[in-house]
Every structure is written in C-alpha cells, then in structure tokens.
Amino acid sequence: MSASTDPRNGASAEGEDHAPTHTAASPRALDATAPRPDTAPVAAEKSAQVGRLAATVERLREEVQAARNAADGRALIELAKGILVERLHCGPAQAARQLAELADQSGISELELATDIINQAARDHVTRIATDFVQATGGGPPGDSTTPSVAVSLRTTESAALAADDTQTVAESLLHHALAPLGVTAVAVWTAGHDGSLTLSGHAGFPDEEAERWHYVPPGVATAARQALTQRRTVRLSTTADGPPTIGYGHGPHGGRIAVCAGTGGRIHGVLEICWPQPLADHPPAVERQLEALAELCAHTLEALPAPPPGLTPSVRSSSARSSSARSSSVRSSPSDSELVDLSDGLHDAALVLRPHLDSEGRLADFRIVYANTHFQDPAGRPRSALNGSLLLETYPLAVGGSEIYSRIERVYATGESFRAQRMTLTTLVDQVPLETVADISISRHGHSLLMIWRIEDETARLASLLQHAQRLGRVGGFEENLVTGEITWNSQLFSLYGRDPLDGPASLRDLATRAHTDDATAIGRFLRTVLHHQRPATLAFRLRRSDGVTRHIRIAAEPVLDSEGRLLLVRGAYQDISAQHWTEVALAATRDQLAHTEQESAERSRLALQLQHAIMPPTHGPLEAPGLHIAVRYRPAETEALVGGDWYDAVALPSGQILLCVGDIAGHGVKAATGMVVLRNALRGLAMTGAGPAKLLGWLNNVAHHLTDRVTATAVCALYDPTTRTLRWARAGHLPPVVVRSDNATTLPLTRGLLLGALADVSYDEDDCQLRPGDILLMYTDGLIERRDTAVQESMTQLLIGAQKPADTLGQRLDHLLTYSKSDTDDDTCLIGIQVEDIGGAGTQRSSAVPSPAHAPAHE
Fold it and tell me: Source organism's superkingdom (predicted)?
C-alpha cells in the first residue's frame, strides 16, 4: 500500500489538492488564484477517489478488528459451553441453549456470562484479580455490573494471546482489550537476550517508523525496559522527558510509563512497557496486580512463541511468523540436561548442572543439583551420587545462602547474563566446622538450566605465578648447572637478561669471563674459584656484554650443592640486572659532589658575611662614654648563618658635642646585605661630621643608597642628642619609631614622614625633636625584635611596650629581658640600643668611638 492510500496518512493525502506556494515573481503564482478549467475537475476527481479509498481501508480495518474480537469472544463462549457440558452432562447444543437462556434471564451478554462461568470454574490468578478490582473500586459483590468488564477484558486478552501466532498480535490484544480501559495509549513487548540486549517483539500505539528505530537495543543502553531487567523490579517514570530514552521518547506528549518484568518461575523472558499520555498517577493495588498478570501472560507468550528474526520490525515479523514457526521453535528449544552433563564432564574444573525448583505457587524457591561432574569433590566427603537431585541451599547453606553467590545465580537465571568472578570465598560446613575455600566462579544459563563452574585456587600454582612476577619485577633470572651431567637450566627471564635466543640454549658458568667486560676478568676468576674450588657461596657485580651490543650491569649470586660424600654436584644461583641501580648510584654520587661544592661555597659566603659584620661592629672592651648618658647595645644575629642580614647600629660622639645615634636594616640577606651595611654605616659617619641635622643626613644617605650602591634599599632611624639641653632631634626612613620609657610608662615617638632609603632619588625627610628628662630611657631597634608572621605590627608594638615597662635594675638587664621574651619568629637579625639619661654632673669625658657589643654578650654600661 502506498503512502497516499494509507489511512494513517489520509489527512496529508486529502490535502494534496491545495495549490503549491510560489513567490510573487513567478508567473505560476499569478495564475494560482484561478485554476485552469481543464485541470480543476481532474484534481477534484483524484481527491474524491483518495477519500473513498481511505474510508474503505478504515472500514476494512474496523471489520478485521471486530472479527478478531468476535473470535476471541467465541473462544470464551465455547470454553464456557465445554464447562456446562461437563457439569450438566448434556450435549453441546443443549449447553448452547442453556447459556443463552441464563444470559437472557441475567440481563447480561453471553460473553459476560461465559466469563463468569470460566472464573467460577477456574478460580485462578485472573479470577482473584477481577474480584479484588471490584472490591477495591466498587466495594460490591462479584455480581455487580462492574465485574464483567474487568473479567471479560482479562479473559479476552488471555484468549487472544493463546490463539495468537506472534507477539505483535498479543501486544495489540493487550492494548485493545485490557489496557485501553485504563487510559493506556501505547504498549511495547521486549524480548530479553542472553547478552542483556532487548528486541522489540511486539508493539501497539507506536508508529511503524518508531518501532523500526527501536527494533533492537544493544546491551548496556539504559532504557526504561533495561532498568527493569537489570533491577528485576517494576520501573515507574513520571514523564519520558525526565527518564531514560526509550521507544516513543520525544514522540507526542510526554506522559507516564511503567516497565514490568515479564517472567515465570524466576526467569525473566522480557519486559512489558506500558505508556500513558498524561503524567503517571498512583494506581490502586488491584490495577498493579492486573498489570503484573498481563506481564506474566506476555512471559508465557514469549516462552511459547517462536523468536522473531532479528532486524525486522513487529509489522514485518507478523507476516513471516507462520512460515518460520517450526524452524524458530527448534532454534529456541533449550539444550537438554544430557547435553549439559556431557559438556560438564568435558571440563577440567568442578561443575554443577542446576535447574530451578519452584514452589506450589510457581515461584522460584531453590535450585536443584541435576549433575555434579567427575572433577567435583564435595568438601564434606559425600559421593557425587548423593548430591544429584538435592537442593542447592540445603546441600551448601553457608557456601551459597550465606553469601552473594545465590543472588548471582538467581540473576543469571532471570536475565540470562553470565556471571564471572575471581577469588570468591565459599564457606562449607563440615562436621559443624566452617571451612573456607577460595575459588573462581563462572555461572551461565543454557535454556532452562544453569552451568556453575568453580576453579579451586591451587596454592602451588599461585605461589609459582607470584614468584614469576617477582622475578619479572626484580629483573631476576635463575639458573642451575649440573657439573656431573653438564645439563644447564635457565628460566625465561635469564634468557631475556642475556639477550640470548632460547633456541641457542643456556651458557655455562665457566664461560662467564668471555661474555663480560675485560676489566672484570680478574673479579670473575676469584668468583669462580670461590664457588667451584673452595665450594663456598659468592656474589659478584660485573658488566655483561650482550650479543646485541648492549652492556648491562649484572649481579650474580651462586651457591654450590654437594652430594652426600661432599663432592660438588651442581651450582645454582640467580642473575639480577642492576643497571638502573648502578646509574642511579652514579647520579647520586655526582649529586653528592655537587652538594658538597655548593655547601662549601655557601660556607664561604657566610664566613665572608660574618667578617663584614665584624668589620662594622668590631668587638670592643668598653662602652661609649658621654655626658649624662648610659648607652647599652644588644645584637642578636640570625640563627642560620645563611641568613646573615644587614642590621646595623652606631653611636658616635661628634666634634660638636652631640651624640649620633642610628639603627638601620638592609633589605635581604647574605653578602650583598653585609656590603650594603658597610657602605651606609660609614657614609653616615662621614656625613654626620658636617653638623647637619638628622633629616638632612637621611636625605644625603638616601642618595648614597640610590646612586652609589647596587640598588640597596634599607630602613633607618637617625637621631642627634644634645647633652647640654637633653634635646633629641630625630628622623626616620621607613623604620619603626623609637620608644621612650619614662617612670615605667613606655610610649612610641610620633611617626614622621620618611621613605625608605634607596627607593627614589632626592627624597626629603621630616624631622622632630623630643625633650628628655633624667631617668628617661630611649630604645632604638630593628624589626627583628617584634616581627611575627601571624601578628599585625600594631599588636607586636603593644607587646613591646608592655615588655619595656617592666622594671629592671640596670639598662642592660632591661635590654636582655626584651631580647629573651621577644616573640618574633622570622629568624632575622636584631639590633637593640638603649640610652638612659642621667644628670649632667655624672657625665664623663667624651670619646669619639663606636660602642658595639659582642654577639649574645651584654655591653658594658
């Protein structure tokens, strides 16, 4: 039938008389509004013919469907007549009249009455479903008017399935008789393959082109039917848009969908997929049982009907089912148990042939051992004949029931997918003592039977395999040489180490020198004398020259084996390729030499930096003596010599009578910081002789750092103290402000503007002054005293002020206390100067000399 005559395409066929659309510039478009007189009657006649043909096809389709329904109904009526013949002991004609009279008296149709008679006689699963449905929905007795509708639909569907010769007809009957009253618009019946694939065996409500696209679903594709098959339960999807792709996905409105496993006796033959046009609602339990009964009916159909040829759509299969029924039935027939018995006996491993054992209601309860092959040994010592015919769970309750292996057996039988696992632990109860066995398991389904194979792990084979892998990973090859017979045995790994073809045979231990480097001949001679003459074990590392030109570093270990009379019988041992280890040792030796050279250079740089520091702060035997001042200095170098820094300090009595006090910190560590420290300290001493103030001195010193050094940056505090007026003039270049302690109250001097030294040229600095009193203590320091990585500067300054306020007997003790309880964690140099103002009368003579203090030693006061 062509597409134009297909009733499903009738709308498009009837619309063929519409004029085609053209652009305004087309000449045909100008004439489209008025059909030509000679073509209009022809087009109208064709359209009328197509419409009559479509109506005829639709009428014939309805007649065919009505004939099918009548045939299904007649089958139920004939079955009811047979029941009346058996019960009333009458003939068929009298039974037919009796059925007609009873239907007329009851006011129902003969089909509904026939269904009631069948239900009363059968009392089977369908009868219970119909009764439960009536009680759940109407609550009335079985005689209500709603009873025949449910019972008739289920019995009619059952009758049609039994009379059908292909699954396509079964799917159409399911939708028409049983599922359409529930609002179902489409149904698909899938056949499950042994490899986990799905084949569309029948469908109704889906277009043929959609069924062609979904005629085969490969294993592993996550469709709704595949989920039901894998999980072995009913899968419900609210909308097809939210769920996995499946037949009808994206076709029409999104609705609800249910996939029910179609199985009997624990075996799943396929999946029944049911589609609703609207989102899925909660169904009562009676409807759920009705769907399960229909899925079970599909399972019987899939089991009984021939398998359709793969690659054909259900519509094509229906036409070829009759001709291939006998051939397909022979293909689907499962192998007999005798074939599996012969197969199991041909295996080298233990095997059991199992068949499902069903309970009284047809549910899977256990598996029966049909046969145990000749290699099977029962752990409890029972003969194989005693196992044949026994139930698996009763025979091995711990090995099967107490582990996941039984669920695996059930799954293989249900889905047909084989199962394999390595090193599974099976526990067997022998004389009330559990014994564990490690085995490799393989389970496969063959028709209605299962073949379970297990391979007990051989400890000797496992250790031999482990040894081979250890030799491979360690690049070790073993040998044994019989000195009496001359027979030499090498393993495969030793041939690989030698680069020697196994067809050439192994080489003798006495020929070792001919295959080694000439420089190793003497060592090889001593090794052979130790083993062969002195008969003692020995080891040797030598260079092996292989035939392919590659030289490998090899270690050989050998031991002699003596007979009962003390004579040398054979030598056995092992070769190991240590080339990687040798070259690693060479690389490590070179690295150690490089590290030693680097350490020596680092030590030289540290020594030079320390010498430069001592040049700036040389040891002295006495402090600076100035009128009315006590000066104490503390210097704490970095704990790591490689971090020798650029902290510096100075205290100089100038010709003008003023005292120059300064503290600085060069950025960085090492030789560069130490040399920068020398330049800035000496430059400041020279500049201070001009009599300029602190701000001017820092401005000049900034230009020195910027122009006359190798881009050195530093912070500094410079102060000039006048002993006669007790006035302190000071300026800062990015440094922390000095601290004044007066009457056990410590405060910082107000911050003045000043950029760090060396950053920019021609920088001006602010200057401030402070009037000191007798007893005041001025503290000047570097950031190594207070700096912490996890603490803000303001918090560290507060801790410094608290520590400075604590009373002390002498100025040196106060400085020692600040250094001891400093919480800095940067491992940086620290300079600390303390100046205590006293009465002018107690001042001594002035000396123009620096007053550094030895490291870690208090200065004289």
Answer: Bacteria
Q: Which residues pair with 539 in a beta bridge?
A: 557
Distance from C-alpha of 477 to C-alpha of 471, rounded to nearest angstrom: 7
582 class by beta-carbon count within 10 Å (0-12 exposed, 13-18 middle, 19+ buried)? middle
Residue ranges in the chain whose pLDDT is less than 50? 1-35, 133-148, 310-313, 315-335, 619-622, 842-861
Under a CB-based contact definition with an 8 Å cutoff, are residues 777 and 740 in contact? yes
Per-residue tokens: 807: 């009373």
Sheet holding 645-653, edge to edge: 645-653, 659-669, 714-722, 727-733, 768-771
User: 186-192 and 198-204 as β-strands: parallel, antiparallel, unpaired?
Assistant: antiparallel
Contact 777, 823 (CB under 8 A): no
How many Cβ atoms from other residues are within 10 Å of residue 438's Cβ? 14
State the pLDDT at residue 162. 57
Question: What pLDDT was estimated at residue 756?
Answer: 93
Q: Rounded CA gap, 580 and 80, in Å?
A: 91
Considering only CA atoms, which of 4, 91, 84, 83 is closest in space to residue 50?
A: 4
Positive/negative CA dihedral, 250, 252, 255, 261: negative
Three-state SS sequence of 579-595: HHHHHHHHHHHHHHHHH
pLDDT, residue 859, reads 37
Structure-block tokens of residue 490: 């090498």
Where is 274: in which H helix or E strand?
strand 267-275
Nearest to 371 by CA among 303, 446, 432, 438: 446
Task: Provide the token pair at 843.
Answer: 């001042």
Q: Tokens 């004289």: give the residue.
A: 860
CA distance 225 to 190: 8
For the 174-315 domain, the top CATH level (class) is: alpha beta
| Predicted pLDDT at 131 | 53
Q: What CA–CA distance (Å, rounded) separates 347 from 370? A: 16
Q: How far is CA 814 from the centre of its chain?
A: 62
User: What are the CB-based long-range contacts (under 8 Å, 24+) for 375-382?
Assistant: 375/347, 375/348, 375/349, 375/350, 375/351, 376/350, 376/351, 376/352, 377/350, 379/428, 379/430, 379/435, 379/437, 380/428, 380/429, 380/430, 380/431, 381/430
Phi, psi for 269 (deg, rounded to 5): -90, -25
Helix (H, G, I), strand (E, B) or coil at 642: helix
- Domain-wise residue ranges, the chain: 1-16+43-163, 174-315, 335-457, 461-577, 617-842
Residue 704: predicted pLDDT: 92
Q: Give me 49's structure tokens.
A: 């013919």
Q: Tokens representing 467?
A: 């040894």
User: How far is the C-alpha of 725 from the C-alpha of 112, rounded, in Å?
Assistant: 131
**Whole-number Å distance between alpha carbons of 393 and 406:** 9
pLDDT value of position 776: 94
The CA dihedral of 309, 314, 318, 324, to the nearest 10 degrees, is: 10
Select from 3.60.40.10, 3.40.50.300, 2.60.34.10, 3.10.20.90 the CATH code of 617-842: 3.60.40.10
Note if the pTM is more than 0.85: no
pLDDT of amino acid 439: 79
| Max CA pair span of the chain | 155
What CA–CA distance (Å, rounded) separates 599 from 620?
Answer: 32
Identity of the residue numbered 41: P
- CA 429 to each of CA 376, 389, 495: distance values in angstroms, whole numbers, following the listed order: 17, 20, 48
Place of tokens 């005629």: 215
CA angle 204, 208, 214 (to 5 degrees): 85
Which one is the CATH code of 335-457: 3.30.450.20, 3.40.50.2000, 3.40.50.1820, 3.30.1450.10? 3.30.450.20
Q: Is the dihedral of CA 704, 710, 713, 719 positive or negative?
A: negative
